[in-house]
Amino acid sequence: MKYFISFESTTLFGNEKWLLQKPEVCGVLLFSRNILSLETTKKFINEIKTVRPDIKIAVDEEGGIVSRFAHLMPNFSQPYIATLPLPEVREFYKNRSEFLKNIGIDINFAPVVDVVLSENSYMYKRSYGSDIDNVVALSKICIEEQKKAGILSCVKHFPGHGRSTENSHEKLPVVNISQEEWNNLELEVFEDVIKSDPEYVMVGHLLFPQINSQIASVSNYWITNILKGQLNFKGKVISDDICMKGLYGSVDATNLKVFEDVGLDELIISDQKHPILTRLA
């Protein structure tokens, strides 16, 4: 099992250099606190790569309310992008991807492929909308342009966050739909988007109790049987941040065994004080 970790500032401290050199660590996820200017961000990435040349640098650059570079480049939300003509969408994603690559980003945890059916959805301001064909088309353009620029893509949030009103950063979203309902919407979207060959799929902390009793991010059913089996996804499967409150209280997220043997390849662990990381000593 490999981990994406995060850092507190725009330079590395001694303990962070130690952590970065651990073989279990495969990537660094940048947050807004790490990104002050183009110059400082490039310098920070170079510092990280000097310690670990093979490390992957990742960011959540969905656009809109989830943007780490909003103060440094044009920032279009996915709902806004869904209103644009397709040539303009492609041009925007081309420019953004080249911008990220020029800074030193290797992976963008985007696009969001969650379909929202109501304004009450937690993902309403982060989604391309309710039209399945449009969600798929726009997601594919994002993936294609990132791939051209040398940016790895991460489709999220499998098996679908769009129907939920809860924020998994704060509590566990419970989606009470049947297998048939999921097959008719979420399955169709993920199946089509995965055909664009994204390098990653992120699994959310989501519970579909009518379908499976386990939270998706620790579910062999969702990850091994559906994502890797039925959908034949051959890339890396990564969890959403395991420090999120939606996971705690439901599973022991400090126990690595919870995440092993369910099909996950990598974990996001944003808190350096998380027991899984402190046990690397």
At a glance:
Helices cover 33% and strands 13% of the residues. The chain has helices spanning 14-20, 38-51, 78-81, 86-103, 132-149, 179-194, 220-230, 275-278, and strands at residues 2-5, 25-30, 56-59, 107-108, 152-158, 200-203, 236-241, 266-268.
Describe this protein's structure:
It is a single chain. The chain is 33% helix and 13% strand. It has 281 residues and is an alpha/beta fold. Strand 4 (107-108), helix 5 and strand 5 (152-158) form a beta-alpha-beta unit. The longest helix is centred in the middle third of the chain and has 18 residues, at 86-103. The two termini are 16 Å apart. The mean pLDDT is 96.
Characteristic terms for this protein:
33% helix; globular; eight-stranded parallel beta barrel; 8 strands; 281 residues; 8 helices; alpha/beta
What's the SSE blueprint?
Layout: E1 2-5, H1 14-20, E2 25-30, H2 38-51, E3 56-59, H3 78-81, H4 86-103, E4 107-108, H5 132-149, E5 152-158, H6 179-194, E6 200-203, H7 220-230, E7 236-241, E8 266-268, H8 275-278
Parallel strand pairs: 1-2, 1-8, 2-3, 3-4, 4-5, 5-6, 6-7, 7-8
Helix pairs in contact: 4-5, 5-6
